[in-house]
Write a structure and sequence with these properties.
- This protein is 36% helix and 17% strand.
- By secondary structure, the protein is α/β, with parallel strands linked by helices.
- The chain has a single domain, classed as Transcription Regulator spoIIAA.
- The protein has a seven-stranded parallel beta sheet with strand order 1-2-3-4-5-6-8, with helices on both faces. A two-stranded antiparallel sheet has the order 7-9.
- α3 packs parallel to α4 and α10 crosses α11.
- The chain is globular and about 50 Å long.
Length: 313
């Protein structure tokens, strides 16, 4: 089997869509989050540490255009050549602003000559028909996709991590997005407190029912200076990822999920990475994402299994 054959590869799908290799450029539009500014809560989600997700070139003090230029230079220095660049509005909640401001920000990115499209990262409770209408209009010009941070299909978990939306909200957001033929992705965190291994695997049926195009899986990492640290130290039994859970266990968990995952869903990410000085604990240690992916593919090949071969709905 080839390297990517056991699972549906996001990079390959994007290359086919855009006619060449694409490189994402992270953008900080400085739009904040309603779960931090008091609209919903001041504490934010218990797992979240924004500094863990931003590359060095991605700074809100720079304009969108400047961040794109810095991002291209950043990847060029690392010999990451691409025929297409995607402006990825990653930091914060990127539909959390008046429609006029959003239109200005998105158009600034799309007007850059090197940009082939935009991806908007946001919360499912921060979308509206008006905002989706704008994205649908822009999608007639260049590539547009929306990524929703859903994190869990279980409302009990969402309440526990101070998410301030339920899974029904996520279902509705995805449905409205797909009605407009906009590519739609979702993020899920594996190992949130109170969720067992069976819970995580069984959630795949509800993920399949969403009708998303792409998916990112993140292993739960415990970041310093987040509310989750105290629970981690005081009640480690609440967490699946303990001292006996490592890379091999995570690979086996991913395989059980992927075998049940609809093969039409492109897998963009199977784990996250972050600066070690910000991380209190990660079940994967410091393994590089590409090495982890290789381990996963080799294991799936050795078992002669693939994405969707145990599809559940």
């Amino acid at each position: 089997m080839s390297y990517d054959s056991p699972l549906t590869d996001y990079g390959k799908r994007l290359r086919e869509r855009l006619g060449g290799r694409a490189q994402k450029l992270s953008i900080d539009a400085h739009l904040g989050c309603p779960n931090r500014d008091g609209t919903l809560s001041y504490g934010g989600c218990t797992f979240c540490l924004g500094d863990a997700f931003s590359p060095a070139y991605c700074r809100a003090a720079r304009s969108i255009t400047e961040q794109i230029d810095f991002g291209i230079a950043f990847h060029t220095r690392r010999r990451r050549t691409a025929s297409n660049y995607i402006a990825y509005f990653q930091v914060g909640t990127n539909t959390y602003a008046p429609i006029e401001q959003l239109e200005r920000l998105y158009n600034e990115a799309l007007s850059h000559p090197a940009i082939s499209g935009i991806i908007i990262g946001t919360r499912p409770d921060c979308i509206s028909s008006e905002k989706l209408d704008l994205l649908e209009y822009l999608a007639h010009k260049k590539y547009v996709a929306v990524e929703y941070g859903i994190e869990s299909v279980y409302d009990s978990t969402l309440r526990r991590i101070n998410r301030h939306h339920d899974f029904a909200t996520a279902r509705e957001a995805v449905s409205q997005t797909k009605e407009r033929n906009i590519d739609c992705g979702a993020h899920f965190i594996l190992g949130l407190p109170g969720e067992s291994r069976d819970d995580i695997v069984e959630a795949t049926a509800q993920i399949n029912a969403l009708g998303i195009d792409t998916i990112k899986f993140h292993q739960l990492q415990i970041y310093r200076s987040t509310p989750l640290v105290e629970l981690w130290h005081d009640h480690p039994e609440e967490f699946l990822f303990g001292s006996n859970f490592g890379v091999d266990s995570y690979v086996e968990l991913l395989i059980d999920i992927l075998r049940r995952l609809d093969a039409n869903i492109a897998v963009e990410r199977i784990a996250s990475s972050s600066p070690r000085h910000l991380t209190e604990y990660s079940p994967l240690g410091g393994i590089r994402p590409d090495i982890l992916r290789q381990r996963l593919v080799e294991r799936m090949n050795s078992l002669n299994v693939g994405q969707g071969d145990m599809l559940i709905r």
